[in-house]
Amino acid sequence: MTELNHVFDGTRDNFRQLVLENSHKGVVLVNYWTPDAGPCFKLWQTLEGLSREYQGRFLLVNVNTNTQNSLARENSITSVPTIKIYQRGKVVESVYGAQSETSLRSSIDKYAPPARNTPIARAIHSYQAGQVDAALDILTEASITSPEDPKPCAMAIKLLLREKRYTDIETYYLTLPISIQADTEISTLRVHAKMLQLAERALPVDELDHQLEDTPDDMDAALSRAAVAMVQDNYELALTHLFRILQQDSHYGDELPRKAMLVVFSLLGDTHELTKTFQKSMREVLS
User: Fold this and answer.
1) Which residue, 79, 115, 216, 270, shows the most beta carbons closer than 10 Å to its own?
2) What angle do CA 115, 120, 121 make, to 5 degrees?
């Protein structure tokens, strides 16, 4: 499992130490979020991915504005998601809304120290220069050199995702050692790729809905509808369709519905009502 060694939950009690004091040592990103806002989960996932990639070049502190309302008010947070970047005890930049990974990377790179000459850093440089295959070659070589390290493999899949090369992701995944395939980030990225590919190939939403009205047991249509709902951050609808498939056939599509539900649970968090409700239902079906 890939650890998040540079990600913390911010509270009133630890804010001074985690944010203000640490910002004198390096860059600190404070992510103000709430479990009630769908865009926050997509942004959180992007930020955690960047935290893994940057390997300590910035500290990520997540502040839940529902439980830390007074702290949010003191820092002039009026909407979420909002990111404030701290350096030397002061806010040097504020970012509002669910920005793209490219935009976030641009903001971070203004203040974070230069990357070390790692294979991942070289691959990213090649990719940004438009040399996609060269970047993938660097990551492949790195994974051969360090076969127990999942990070180069995860980065390769991320680059393929950005290029929408979904079939190549599946081919690449099947070449990986079993231990790397089992890595949480790797398996999650694979599920994302499968669902994105389904959403991209899906019929228009109106047609899918009519199809499911006529044939409620059509698992192919239900999975496509769930994929579209996931892309649109409509997690309740996605979970509803995925669970219905699970009830019909728990092994359908190499257990993709179950795996996709687990991905949604990770996005929502263990305390979200949807997670608790559907986790309970899932356990009852699979027991």
Assistant:
1) 115
2) 30
